[in-house]
Design brief:
Strand content: 15-25%
Number of helices: 3
Strand order of the largest sheet: 1-2-3-4
Oligomer: single chain
Number of strands: 4
Order of helices and strands: HEEEHEH
Distance between the termini: 24 Å
Helix content: 25-40%
Radius of gyration: 14 Å
Low-confidence stretches: none
Structural class: alpha+beta
């Protein structure tokens, strides 16, 4: 929860998405724990990715671990996990604000199918 809030804080604040700190108690994620996969480095949570059906969601990398290829590893792992579940199509959503993520997804072969204005 702490890592998620830290990773999305700046974006949610600048885009005025409330609440800025989305997670505040364990009960909010307890039903999702089987779909959240952590990336540990030396016993520390460096990142995570959530896979819900054929959707990759909430791919996050702790700030101190960014720019080390962990985001790409999580993305590729998530894609492989979804394919192993029998899905052919993989869906993800990303805020245009997050240009690093957009670049990663495009470089990995994703295409923009639809743009939506959220705020």
């Amino acid at each position: 929860m702490k890592t998620y809030n830290e990773c999305f804080y700046k974006m949610r604040k600048e885009l005025e998405v409330e609440p800025i700190n989305f997670y505040y108690c364990y009960s909010q994620i307890k039903d999702k724990i089987n779909d959240i996969f952590l990336y540990l480095q030396n016993g520390v949570i460096a990142g995570a990715v959530s896979c819900y059906g054929n959707e990759i969601d909430d791919l996050i990398v702790e700030k101190s671990f960014q720019r080390q290829g962990i985001g790409q590893k999580l993305l590729l792992w998530g894609m492989n996990h979804i394919k192993e579940q029998g899905y052919e199509e993989i869906i993800l959503h990303v805020a245009e604000w997050n240009q690093n993520a957009v670049k990663l997804y495009l470089e990995t072969g994703f295409t923009i199918q639809k743009k939506e204005k959220v705020r």
